[in-house]
Model the fold of this input.
Amino acid sequence: MRDRTPIIVVEELTAGYGESIVFEKVSFQVFQGEIFVILGGSGCGKSTLLKQMIGLHQPFSGRVLIHGMDITTADDVALRKVRMGIGVLFQSSALFGSMTLFDNVALPLMEFTDLSIKTIEQIVKMKLAMVDLSGYENHLPSELSGGMKKRAGIARAMALDPAILFFDEPAAGLDPITLAELDLLIKKINAGMGTTMVVVTHELQSIFNIAHRVIMIDKNAKGIIAEGDPKELKEHSGDPRVIHFFNRLPG
Amino acid sequence: MGQLSSQPSGYILRIESEKSGEVLLSVSGRIALENLKLFQSDIGTLQEELSPSNLSVDLSGVKYLDSAGALVLLQFENQMKARSIPFQWIHTTDEVKGIMGLLDPATLTTTPLTPLRRSDNLLEQMGEASIRFLNDFIQVIAFVGDLLLSLIYSLVHLRSMRWEDVFFYMKRAGLDGLPIVGLISFLLGLIIAFMSSLQLKQFGANIFVASLVSIAMVRELGPIMTAIIVAGRSGSAFAAEIGTMMVNEEVDALMVMGFDPTRFLAVPKVLATMIVVPLLTLYSSLFGIVGGLMVGVIGLDLTVNTYIQETLKNIRLFDLTSSLIKSVVFAMLISSIGCLRGFQVKGGAEGVGISTTSAVVSGLFLIIVADSAFAVIFYYI
Done:
């Protein structure tokens, strides 16, 4: 389902906190249907970049275009419309602790559609089944393991069938087996629904499992130092920083 | 040939051919959440009208299908098969196959692993509330005991006291509260003086406004108002701060590192509050008296000197001492209940909210109970 239609375009993006610049003049494109991974070491600005891409933070300069709309200058109404077409899995899953899983997944459907309660109930059950949480609709997030919370977070992010799914450090706090299962789920959803996925991670196994294409950000370079297929980068890159990262070498 | 929906709805549902009971239905266009309600209704109508010997559904014209749309199509297939009607999808695109492959309609009938929590009936709720109240009372007693022991230990071993924290909370609970305590006390004194002057004027007893305001402020309203403001500002802040630390496992970290959380977190807050609340109480009484003075001078033609003389004549050392004793006890109650509620936080953000509210409500309740007890005790002294 992958084609070369850019669905996200990041142009000359410079961002940071306060006076300090985390990355500058970063440009890249994400194509429809691909799993695009943003990787790099801790503190290089991966999550900052993701927050710019979903319009949570304002950049110092540059543009982020989603479906052709510049979200850095969009007004609240336009931004809300764009956000309805994207789903985000946050690092901590960010499920609402006082709501059951059913209510967590049903919330966007109740708010943004005119479907009957019965239809919403069926859609929620189906979404939970898709992430292998069938039967858990009455559970509270506090009653779930870390991996289950991530899957529930994906079900909620997919509630409105968004064209793009963003994942912020999905590997955080997960054991290798649970992470491998999560990778399989990401691939399954991508293959089945053609959803474009942007994943921020530094977990090597996960990168090789899921990524169609990656960009690597470096803290000192304050920008992208490599772009392409992860296996090719590992084998053919001449950049010592890329070699260090892919071979898990210190320094 | 019948067509149920046309292009404005985003899809076309059309019976292409109907030969000797064999029906060919074509679905084309876009089926997604935005037109799902209409699509469901059209499919439902078809289901009622059609009773073919064989049904084929051509999906070659489907431009976009989301998972909710795919679910409706799969349910349509299931319902037709349940009526023993032979059913086939034809010309299914890879995209449609992919999304249909993700869904399993059988999961829609799965029963939840746990039943939905329903609120108990009134009697059960009352019973549970009584048990909670009793347990809470025991916990408060135990915590205050633990806190007193920790406080005594810290005062005996002064090096173990976290003085930086004590000064920080003295500033937060005391210095930062000066504007609001001053304003409220001033207005309170002003209101008491104004209301009482309306009555006293009739008897030519204007001068007694000064004694009324001063005694009311020093004995009762100064300590009470200050305690209420501190409960709202600092008691809730202590509960929220410790509660958030509970949620983030910071209190667990302290414990495994060998720290006593009560001594580390609660004692500096309680000590700081016990130091600043008596000072705030004096400040509050002073501002209340100034409020009364304003009414006396502007509205009752009293001189500043007369008002001050009358005030000083009526305030006894006993009144000041009892006011300070009360304020120390109130401070102890407010801060300890705030800390206790923080330590009792369970769950996440909701738990912090519940505990913060409870810290204020319990604090106010304890202030009133303690003040009633003081009223009886001071009556007999």
User: Anything to note?
Assistant: The radius of gyration of chain B is 36 Å.
